[in-house]
Each structure stands twice: as structure tokens, then as C-alpha cells.
User: Fold PIR Superfamily Protein from Plasmodium vivax Mauritania I.
Amino acid sequence: MIMGNEYSYSLSKLHKNIMQINNVDICNEYVEDISAETFLNIDNLYKLYQYFMEILRADAPHKWDQARKCAEFYKTFEGTCYLGSDDLFCKGIEKFRNGYNLTLIKANDCAPYNFLQPFPKRPEKSANTIATAAITAISFASIMTYKVNKRYR
Assistant:
């Protein structure tokens, strides 16, 4: 996927062709294809950092608007990422949040947007629901097995 368009040409194949043309063997071990989802995650992280750089470069009257855009874009990931997640994208978002907060915590010209809240922890309810469903299914299967074995004895 390049610039929002999809191509059937894989990155590794493209890299191989470029290296053959230039007769160079650089980074072959580190080139791999990425999924469209990974590309979008990288693109979203890039956009966050772009918004952040615009805040740092903006004049005082425009900082507030840039900070608002950045904070609103950050909040769009609230349902995707949770605090303490092992997902690399979520770790990247958390690193961004820490850097943003360290830089803008004392900025008075973008006061309502100078601190990004951490994402909530993963809800325990979903983890408990899965465990409860699994235990119920195993119990049901055990009872049915017991009854079938009892009948054929």
C-alpha cells in the first residue's frame, strides 16, 4: 500500500529489483512485507508526530488549535489501545503520549490540551467472560460424557 493506493508489488520484491539494478546487497535481512494494518498504524503514528511538530513550530495564537487537533487524533485510539498493552503500535502511542506530556505540561498557551490522559486498562469483564464461558463449556462436556458412559455400561 503506497499513499492510500494498493499495489500487488510486494516490498521485498521491489527491494530485490532495486538491489539488482544497483548491484548492491544492503539490508536484505531486514526487509519484509508489511500488512495494510501495519502500514496504517505507522501512518497514524507519523500523523501524531506531525501534529506534535506543528504545535512546537506554531506561533502562540495557533498553538492551541494545533494542540486540539493532536489531542483529538490521539483520542481516536482509545478503543484500540489499553494501558500496559504488549502491542507495538500501542507502545508507540504510549511513548508519544509520554513525550508530548513532558514537553507541553508547562505550556500555558494550549492549557486544555497540554496533557494527554493515559488509556484505560483493559476491561477485566471481557477476560472474566471468556474464562466463564470456557469453564461452562468444559463442565457441560464433562457431564455429557459422564451420562453417555453411564448409559453404555
Notes: The CA atoms of residues 4 and 40 lie 9 Å apart. Helices lie at 11-22, 36-57, 60-75, 88-104, 124-151.
